[in-house]
Amino acid sequence: MSEPSHSPQTKGSKSLNIKKVLPFLREKIEFVIPSKIEWMHEVLSYLIERTAHLGIIKPSTSNIFVALDEAIANAIKHGNKSDPDKRIHIVADITSEQAIFTITDEGDGFDLKSLPNPTDPDYIMRPCGRGVMLIYHIMDEVRYNTRGNQIVMVKLPEKDEESQTSNSKQNNLPENSQHKDSSDCCD
Prior knowledge:
Blueprint: H1 18-21, E1 26-34, H2 37-53, H3 64-79, E2 87-95, E3 99-104, H4 131-138, E4 141-144, E5 150-155, H5 161-166
Antiparallel strand pairs: 1-2, 2-3, 3-5, 4-5
């Protein structure tokens, strides 16, 4: 018994060469999940697989998993307060030129400028509170809506490791000069 082919075929023709049509392919993926962490893992795996398939990332060297994990976990824990009746809306629009991820929660939102600076000496030893900073370092573009309950992250195709390390994204970081007295950012 032969293995089933995963390549699309047309009647009477050779199998389709995906690399040939890749520049014309646009894949839109939408998930609406309950605010429970256990749903996040399968969604993350699927998004990573599709993003790699379209050539945006190299799964063995990419940190995109960390950024998506942080954004979805923040939406679940901080946005929707882990309320299983509230949903997280995840949209990925992926082409061979970029991947755009939009994560929206049903919470009240937050003010990005109110977050403490995780590199401030008062916060440096805390075991949490670095998610937003990591997202800004990993993604090529990050923006929040005015309400603060939606994040849009853009990832361009990854280059080799040398050009990645020399391409610092310091300029994309939000200005977090305010000091917020937060009892526990990990809740």
